[in-house]
Specification:
heterodimer; A: about 350 residues; alpha+beta; Arc Repressor Mutant, subunit A; four-stranded antiparallel β-sheet; 13 helices; 8 strands; disordered N terminus; B: about 325 residues; alpha/beta; eight-stranded mixed β-sheet; about 35% helix
Chain lengths: ~350, ~325
């Protein structure tokens, strides 16, 4: 498809290409393709990443032009061509392409893809119950342990959660800079990526309704362990409180905004060298040096050079279990000490 | 017997829509010359063989079969010095229905493996039917493998770790090559990767009938390819297993096989049967049937979810095979 997509845009940007785009999305719609396939179609035909983000329905899909799904939620560039799902609605589908000016083919891709996405959303959201609605006042009541139990159960019911069902479990979510959210989770499982808000998120444990204040507290703690997931701030964008284990104890020992411990200052000094912070994170977060080299796309020998340099700057070894643990703790404390 | 074809995977149905002007399901003998001139499958051959400088690329001419012209090998090996001794070798046989293509077609697939697994790729050129009927293609492929095994060290390759691989006609020729090397006590590849392989000249399975006129490489096209290779002998009692591996009576003693095929293609039933017969002969095979896949779907639509899954399965198998 890549070659063909190239031909589409290069050969006849107006008539022929538009017809092909239309028949492509028509076939996808006929075959009842899902959201990812539709967003992938837009990315492949346009030759740039495409994203679908519909906050109201908690749907997020982003696909690279090579067809791989990749979540990377920088804010949309105002230059990007985009389309709403409903006429007059907010933009929900973007082609991540800047500075090329309006193109007829892009417009046709967006229009056809958005139409097909709308049909799928109507189909799947009409069948499956949506996540609890995001009424801020109701969510706030659920998360506040000082609110009377009866009021909290009532709020749950209003949000579409059945307090009489003993199997019902919910998780509190703490997005950075956003308002709190609550997700029902099936059989205690983890939410799908599309259900989570963009950016850094702490996820509380799955609990019965009345234990949500505890889940919320844990989610906010977990948020402190998150990172942007970029080269400048490597680390997990989403952290589950119930996966931290004993590491959570560090949260109390290193308060936010505190004077960073010496190992964190050493890491900060090393981070001034371009690429070194990502290297340190890769070494700490992957099971082997081979995997670490693959993670940051460098050759094994380059990784060794960087490790030598990092060990020199940090003053402790990185190729021993103890050294790796010390590095992991330093990277975690670095996040915790942020203001 | 029902003739309702299984539906194409949604994304692949869309992809077929995009390529329908260039790739038609059928192909007759009269159209072979025309197809050879079209961009069609050659589109798949346009790529940077060095993969951004990762490989050094050369074409070598090596001795062909007895009393036959030399054979041309495309050799791509990593520029970097090997870190762990001689590298595995992927010996690639291109597709094209026995009648079209060259050793660039489809080579991006083994190149991707080689980049991931630090291996050498050798892709063999072979004479095409109908100008050169059986056994010319498979003998060229065999001669290229003999040279590769004997000169592996020269290429930084390990003669004990050669995996033969091909898609479509290249898969069929790879399967035939596995039979030939077994029977002639020639080089012993450690694995055979048969991607949607063309195995059976009889062209008479339920899937061949079911998919007539649909997708890519339907029953008419398949008859054209086999007739080009075998002439009037096609489908008759005297077809060599080295031409059509499905004809082999003994599938024992073969190297471990990976086979895959789409559920919506002519070759589905012959590939499934071939895998079953390898197991029945006490052999090792891994079989994937990709639901709603048309012939060669992962090459034509590499971005589709099903294609990504198929390509991941190829790599996983190689990783396990090579340890």
């Amino acid at each position: 498809m890549k070659e063909l997509a190239g031909r589409l845009t290069a050969v006849d940007p107006d008539a022929g290409a538009a017809v092909r785009v239309i028949s492509y999305f028509d076939r996808l719609a006929e075959a009842r393709a899902g959201l990812e396939a539709l967003v992938r179609g837009a990315a492949v035909l346009a030759g740039c990443p495409a994203r679908l983000a519909d906050t109201a329905r908690a749907v997020r899909v982003r696909v690279e032009p090579d067809g791989t799904r990749k979540e990377s939620w920088t804010p949309p560039d105002p230059d990007w061509p985009c389309a709403p799902l409903e006429p007059g609605g907010p933009p929900a589908l973007w082609l991540e392409r800047s500075g090329t000016g309006p193109s007829v083919v892009d417009a046709v891709i967006l229009e056809r893809a958005a139409g097909a996405v709308r049909l799928v959303l109507d189909r799947i959201r009409g069948r499956a119950p949506a996540a609890p609605a995001d009424d801020p006042a109701l969510v706030e009541a659920l998360l506040d342990g000082t609110v009377a139990e009866r009021t909290r159960l009532h709020a749950a019911r209003r949000l579409g959660v059945d307090p009489a069902d003993p199997a019902v479990r919910l998780r509190a979510l703490a997005p950075l800079g956003g308002r709190p959210r609550v997700l029902t989770c099936r059989a205690g499982g983890r939410p799908a990526d599309a259900e989570l808000p963009a950016g850094r998120v702490g996820v509380g444990p799955a609990v019965p309704i009345l234990d949500l204040p505890g889940s919320w507290h844990a989610a906010r703690t977990a948020l402190r362990f998150t990172a942007e997931g970029t080269a400048r701030d490597p680390g997990p964008r989403v952290v589950y409180a119930d996966e931290l284990g004993g590491i959570v104890l560090l949260a109390d020992l290193v308060p936010s905004g505190a004077e960073p411990p010496p190992d964190v200052r050493a890491v900060e000094a090393a981070a001034a060298v371009p690429g070194l912070l990502a290297t340190l994170h890769a070494v700490a977060a992957t099971p082997s040096q081979r995997a670490a080299a693959a993670e940051i796309n460098v050759h094994h020998s380059t990784l060794q050079d960087r490790l030598n340099q990092a060990e020199h700057l940090l003053g402790w070894p990185l190729r021993t279990p103890q050294g790796r643990l010390r590095l992991q703790l330093a990277l975690i404390m670095r996040h915790l000490a942020r203001p | 017997m029902t003739l309702v074809p299984p539906p194409f995977d949604p994304e692949l149905a869309g992809a077929l829509e995009l390529i329908k002007d260039m790739i038609q399901p059928g192909l007759t003998m009269d159209e072979i010359d025309l197809v050879r001139q079209e961009p069609g499958i050659e589109l798949l051959a346009q790529l940077d063989l060095t993969a951004d400088g990762f490989f050094k690329v050369e074409d070598r001419t090596v001795p062909g079969p007895e009393n036959a012209p030399d054979v041309s090998l495309l050799i791509c090996r990593p520029v970097a010095e090997p870190t762990a001794g001689p590298r595995p070798v992927f010996y690639h046989v291109h597709g094209g229905g026995m009648i079209i293509g060259n050793n660039r077609v489809g080579v991006e697939v083994p190149l991707t493996w080689a980049k991931e697994l630090d291996a050498v790729v050798v892709s063999v050129e072979y004479r095409l039917a109908p100008e050169h009927p059986h056994p010319a293609p498979v003998e060229d492929v065999y001669a290229g493998l003999v040279w590769t095994a004997e000169h592996a060290a020269e290429l930084g390759g390990d003669p004990e770790r050669i995996v033969i691989a091909g898609a479509s006609a290249g898969g069929g020729l790879s399967a035939a090559l596995a039979l030939l090397t077994r029977d002639r006590r020639g080089p012993r590849p450690i694995g055979q990767m048969l991607m949607c392989p063309m195995l059976d000249d009889r062209n008479d399975t339920p899937s061949a009938h079911q998919m007539a006129g649909l997708g890519v490489w339907d029953r008419t096209a398949n008859e054209t390819g086999w007739t080009a290779l075998l002439g009037a002998a096609r489908g008759g009692p005297d077809v060599s297993p080295y031409a059509a591996p499905a004809r082999a009576e003994d599938l024992g003693g073969l190297p471990p096989a990976f086979l895959d095929v789409g559920s919506a293609e002519t070759f589905r039933d012959e590939v499934v049967a071939y895998a079953s017969r390898i197991w029945q002969a006490g052999g090792v095979a891994e079989l994937h049937v990709w639901p709603g896949g048309f012939h060669g779907f992962d090459g034509f639509a590499p971005q589709a979810a099903l294609s990504q899954a198929a390509r991941a399965a190829h790599l996983d198998w190689l990783r396990r095979l090579l340890g």
